Amino acid sequence: MRVGIVGCGGMGNVHASKYAQMAGVETVAFDVDPDRSRAFADRHGAQTAATLDDLFARCSAIDVCLPTDLHHGAALAALQAGKPTLVEKPLCPTLDECRSLMAAARASGALLVPAHVVRWFPEHRAAHDRIEAGAIGRPASVRLRRGGKAPTGTGGWFQDFARSGGVLLDLAVHDFDWLNWTLGRPLTVVSRSVRQGSQIAGAEFVGDYALTTVSYEGGCVAHVESTWLDPSGFRTTIDAAGSEGLIELDSRDNPTLRIHTDGGTRTENTYAPTDDPYYRQLQAFVEAVDSGQPPVTAEEGAWAVAVSLAALESARNDGAPTPVEAP
Ligand SMILES: NC(=O)c1ccc[n+]([C@@H]2O[C@H](COP(=O)([O-])OP(=O)(O)OC[C@H]3O[C@@H](n4cnc5c(N)ncnc54)[C@H](O)[C@@H]3O)[C@@H](O)[C@H]2O)c1
Predict the structure, then answer these.
(1) Residue extents of the structural domains in the chain
(2) Residue nearest to ligand 1 atom 38, measured at CA
(3) DSSP for 202-270, written as a single string
């Protein structure tokens, strides 16, 4: 299978390094910046395409790793060309764009898969499976935290709120998908957020923090804390309480090896390469191209975006309770 990667930045490189470990999968890269395409091709042994149309003509599946505000244009063109398409999260920054991609996928019959990699993190999957199997009884409250340093991205697009949507669209969407997957239908959102400058490491970033509660149809209340104001590095936690127990997860407590020196903190994980969540996610996409069964549906990707958008709306209105619009 030949997979066309659109966007040779941070995630494009991560995805290419995982496809490179799969037997029978080749990659072709396209980036608006030809120097980045060439450097990417050298690094991963990939071919390059001169245009999007050239990429579509040479590939049997497309993987969109562009800044979020550019997902819709590239994914729509790929779906209209009949290509099974994986799109990095969040699927699109508006529900209308999500609906447009879902309609294009229905019209062409091409598979559309949002890349919700958290479902392939072993501990997050295990927590989901245990809750679904009744290990904590009836879930009452789930608290999730996710955050680290503020990302920049090519040309600083993450720091441009109009392009990335800040933590509520870019970061919290991971947790909203995990919650929807685990708890069902989200009803109402209350969110407070702060945006202010931070000058960690001498660079000025727009720091961004949000605290959101989401009420679920079954009565469970979720609390989602999202931050780009944590200079200590990336960390996720879960704390899920129910009628019969509690599940706790802290990504800093797992068997990950951490090495601290003057130069900073380096981590090495003890997973086999095939346990890597990005590898497993992309392997599931490659398998889905054959089976036609998406591992995460486009509708689920749109529901996660719907919760992010309700949270943004609530935060804009001083924490007013805001219903989640069905996509
Ligand atoms: N799942 C995760 O863990 C995770 C982590 C980081 C980012 N992301 C998501 O991945 C996506 C990409 O983020 P990133 O960190 O790789 O960004 P990035 O800025 O590192 O890379 C974007 C690339 O796209 C290229 N590009 C820009 N406009 C283009 C165009 N019109 N046509 C072709 N190429 C173009 C840029 O030159 C750059 O190489 C975003 O949606 C982001 O939210 C997901």
Answers:
(1) 2-117, 118-276+296-323
(2) 9
(3) G--EEEEEEEEEEEETTS-EEEEEEESB-TT--EEEEEEEETTEEEEEETTTSS-EEEEETTEEEEE--
CATH number of 118-276+296-323: 3.30.360.10
CA pair distance 81, 68, nearest whole angstrom: 21
Cβ 9 vs Cβ 154: under 8 Å: yes
Helix (H) or strand (E) segment spanning residue 197? strand 186-198
Class of domain 2-117: alpha beta
pTM attached to this predicted model? 0.94
Pocket test for ligand 1, best of 11, 149, 163 (most atoms within 8 A of CB): 11
Within 6 A (CB) of ligand 1 lie 6-12, 30-33, 36, 65-68, 70, 88-89, 115, 117, 153-154, 157, 170
pLDDT along the chain (327 residues), means of 10: 97 97 96 94 94 97 98 98 98 98 98 98 91 94 95 90 93 98 98 78 70 97 95 90 90 65 67 84 97 97 98 95 98
